[in-house]
Amino acid sequence: MTPLSRSKTPPLRPWQVRALAALEHWKGGSFLISAAPGAGKTRPALEQAKRMLKDGRADRVALVCPTAPLTRQWAQAAGRLGLHLVPDAESPRPPKDFQGIAVTYARVAASGEKWGSLVSPGTLVIADEAHHLGEDLAWGNGFSAAFKRTDKLLLLSGTPFRSDATPIPGMRYDRDGVVVPDISYTYADAVRDHVCRPVAFITYDGTLSWQSGDDVIESSFDTVLSAREAGRRYRTAISTDLPDGMPRILREAHEKLAETRAGGHKDAGGLVIAADGHHAKAVAKLLREITGKAPTVVLHTEARAAQKLAAFTDSREEWLVAVNMVSEGVDIPRLRVGVYATAAKTPLIFRQIVGRFVRAIPGRGQDLSWVYLPADPILRDHAENVEGELRHVLRRGLDESVLDDPVERERKERDPEEEGEAFVPLSADVVPQMTLFGPPPGEPGGPPAAKRIVPSFPSAISASAGAGGQADEEDDEDVPGMPAYERRALLRDKRHRLVGDLRRRDGLTPAEINIWLNRETGVSRVEDATLAQLEQSIELLLDRLTARR
């Protein structure tokens, strides 16, 4: 197998060098790397895997992550470093010319006991976004059963905490129940090092009114309301039917995107996180009226959601409207403007959404991203908390002791259930109240560059994520060559088509042809064939098809 070209692999970042130095002393057990989105936690994990395979500390690699698209993106990232993984694998045992597999937590959980009998003690397990193991007990139990024979567990996460207090397998906790990472690289660190972009928040408040049962209530976000009416106030703010509410926010966000593109970032993109599918379609209709172009709409229920995200990532389209597609793995570095219009308001969701806008692009310096949102007290609290975290870090000179601060518990994710009384949004007249953390230096009202405050998510911002999206990779330049798993898929497809041609020509059964090919190439079944054996079988088929009768 010809390895992919690695001539353009960028040098390791300083924090990655520190992580690998710490991993040199890792003898076994679990090791947690907590790193901000865009920081590049994929790179040290893959470099460590290469080291352990080379020196015999591991005999294969099992990369486990939340979604199937992520398995392919991990395989691509690994291939650029000369490490070949089979994505979305059905077995923990890879073909001979692959060093490992990449698989979802769901697939592992479905066959936990079976995998447990097949996983070798020398398997290095890399758990990407490991906090998912606590979201569903079946995932955690299946993971533990599948990898019970190995003690080499490398955990990766930007949000190593759970709202339900369920322990995450392999993670260490202090006396207060807070996860203790072995290596931590916070968003504050990444902004300081110009690895991630700073983000400015623009909040909107004003007079909102809605019908609640027989009553008409009028309020701004400064008024303290019951949980039910506060939820209805927020739903009024994100309603697409009130011209001076969400439509106004969308217009001003699009003006910022147009300004950003005119300022030199010609393919800058925008993302609206909608509440549900109906809301997303209504937002898309508004954006089309505002911009004259139909935005890309991605719903997590769509079969082609991952492909649509990938197409938007590589395009110059302006706007993406998404529902539940913005967590780990959604890696679109050109996103510069966001609109927060989802009903989910937990700290975890907030940080995951903001994490979509922080990934820096090489050569563009430290661009600023902008997130527009209603001035809901919960959302403002999240934003103000992270501002305070960074102020504390700056005062302490980035003292690592701030990592021991307890992580606030999840709030109730969605508004209280509506029961009985009718709710109807009536009017909204909102205007921008302030820009949290200030406009960028040089703009009116902006502080000096040395004092500008940017949001921080120490050890609690997620990458990569997503419901679907991309592994938390480096900002590598494109490297020529095809990943080994893609080449393997093409060879197997070609072999399958040639078997069909021979079956139709000679009247043989597929089983007869496959028995002949496997005998000639020395394999027991095609799933175990190496790339060289697949190429040999294709040559045999071509020779037989072109030979005279």
UniProtKB/TrEMBL annotation:
PANTHER family linked to this entry: HELICASE ATP-BINDING DOMAIN-CONTAINING PROTEIN (PTHR47396:SF2), TYPE I RESTRICTION ENZYME ECOKI R PROTEIN (PTHR47396)
Listed name of the protein: DEAD/DEAH box helicase family protein
InterPro entries: Helicase/UvrB_N, Helicase_ATP-bd, Helicase_C-like, Helicase_Restrict-Modif_Enz, P-loop_NTPase
Residue ranges of every copy of the Helicase ATP-binding domain listed in the record: 22-178
Gene Ontology molecular functions: helicase activity
Pfam families linked: Helicase_C, ResIII
ATP-binding keyword on record: yes
Disordered: annotated segments: 460-480
PROSITE patterns on file: HELICASE_ATP_BIND_1 (PS51192)
Lineage top rank: taxon: Bacteria
Organism: Paraconexibacter antarcticus
Keywords from the named record: ATP-binding, Helicase, Hydrolase, Nucleotide-binding
